[in-house]
Amino acid sequence: MIFEQVATGGCQSYLIGCPDTRAAVLIDPELGQIDRYLGLTAREGLRIRYVIDTHTHADHFSAAREIASATGAPVAAHRLSPAPYVDMRLDHGDMLLVGGLKLKAMHTPGHTRDSLCLVTADRVFTGDTLLIEGTGRTDLPTGDPDALYDSLFNHLLRLDPALAVYPAHDYKGRSGSTIGHEIAANPRLQNRDRAAFIEMMNHLNLSAPTHLTEALRTNMSGGKTVAQLLAEATAATPFMAMTELADRVASGDLGLILLDVRERDAYLAGHVPGARHLPRGQLELRVNSELPDPTARILTCCEFGYISTLAAQTLRTLGFRRAAALDGGMKAWREAGLPLDNGPAA
Ligand SMILES: [Fe+2]
User: Among 108, 201, 273, 342, which residue has the fewest nearby CB atoms (within 10 Å)?
Assistant: First the structure.
C-alpha cells in the first residue's frame, strides 16, 4: 500500500493508494493543504478515486468538495452526514474497492452521529472515534458518550489487536498506534464500566474548538469560509502598492478615482487626500449614479485591506475592469505617517 500521512496542526489526513493500479483514496483532507495532496498524488503517480470524510469536523475545514471538484472523485461519508455535497452515502459494512485495496466502513457514532472508521487489511482509520491514547470528545453537536461506548468496546476494540490505528487527530506528533496498544494503554479505555465511561466523557471540561461555528457551518452546508471568499477576491483583483499611491498623492494628481469604502465616521476622521467616500454596504446601490464611466481606473481602500479587496472584486464583476485595491489599508497608511485629510471630501 502506498501511504502518505499529512499532518496539519493536530489534524491528520491520509492518502493511500494501490501500488499496482495507482488508484487512491484521500481521507479527511484539510482546506489549507489542497495543493499538497494534489502534489503528493502527482508525485506518486496516483489518481484519487474517492475522497472520504470520516465525520462532520467541528474543528477544521474539510477540503472534500474542493478535492472532488479538482479530481472528479466522489465524496464519500456516512449516510447521516448533513453535508449536501456528499455523493456516496455509506452504511455500516459497505466496502469501497480501490484498485487492489479494500476499505470497509464501520459506523462508529459517539464523537458525532455520522462517525465512520475505515478498516483495511492491516490498519484502521479511526477518525475521531479512537485517538492515540485518547478518544474523540462527545460534547459537540450530535456527540453521544453512550453511543461512543458501544462503538469502542463493542466494535472497534474487537478488531484484530495487531491492526495499526491512524486517527484524524494527534496533538503530540505521534503518527500511529495499534488496537492492542490502545486496549492496553489508552487511559480512557481502562475502565470498561459503561456508566463510569459516560461520567468521564461528560466531565472532560474541554474548551470549544477555535473555529467551531464556521467549521460546522461550512462542513455541514458546503458553504465557503470567509478566508476562501477573501482568497478568491484576492486572486481576481490587482493591487496597488501604498508607496505608489503615496507618490501620486505627493504629485497632486492621483490619476484615478480613489474610493474609500469604510463607514462615514472612519472616513471623516481621516482619509487619503483626494479620496471619495462610498461605503462598501452601499456600493451596488450607488454605483450607477457615482461611477458613470466603466472605463475609469478605480482604486478602493478600507481600514485593513480586506473589505477594499471585496469591493474591487465587486466593481470588476459589475464591469469596472480597471478596478484595483490598495495593498494594505488606512491603518498602515496612518502608521506610516502618510498625509491625511479630515472631514468631508473637498
Ligand atoms: Fe472531529
Answer: 342
Residue 148 is assigned to a structural domain of this protein = yes
**pLDDT tens column, 131-159:** 999 999 999 999 999 999 999 999 999 99
Residues 246-267 as b or e (16 or more Cβ within 10 Å = b): eebbeeeebebbbbbbbeeebb
CA 241 to centroid of ligand 1, rounded, Å: 41
Q: In the numeric block, which cell numbers belong to residue 52?
A: 472520504
340 in a structural domain? no
Q: Do 28 and 147 belong to one domain? A: yes
CA dist., res. 154 & res. 147, Å (int): 10
Q: Is residue 189 part of a domain?
A: yes
Number of domains in the chain: 2
Nearest to 9 by CA among 172, 131, 125: 172
Residue 252 domain-assigned?
Answer: yes
CA of 77 to the centre of ligand 1 (A): 13
Span from the CA of 265 to the centroid of ligand 1 (angstroms): 43
Judge contact between 15 and 24, C-beta under 8 A: yes
**From ligand 1's centre to the CA of 117, what distance in Å?**
12
| 63 Cα: distance to centroid of ligand 1 (angstroms) | 14
Q: Which amino acid is at 112?
A: T
Rounded to the nearest angstrom, the distance between the alpha carbon of 168 and the centre of ligand 1 is 7
pLDDT tens digits, one per residue of 76-92: 999 999 999 999 999 99
Report CA(154)–ligand 1 centroid distance (Å). Answer: 21
C-alpha of residue 55 to centroid of ligand 1, in Å = 7
Domain hosting 322: range is 228-335
pLDDT, position 59: 86
Local structure of 344: helix, strand or coil: coil
What is the 47 CA–ligand 1 centroid distance (Å)? Answer: 26
pLDDT at residue 211, as a whole number:
87
- The pTM (predicted TM-score) of the whole model is 0.83
Query: Do 188 and 267 fall into the same domain?
Result: no
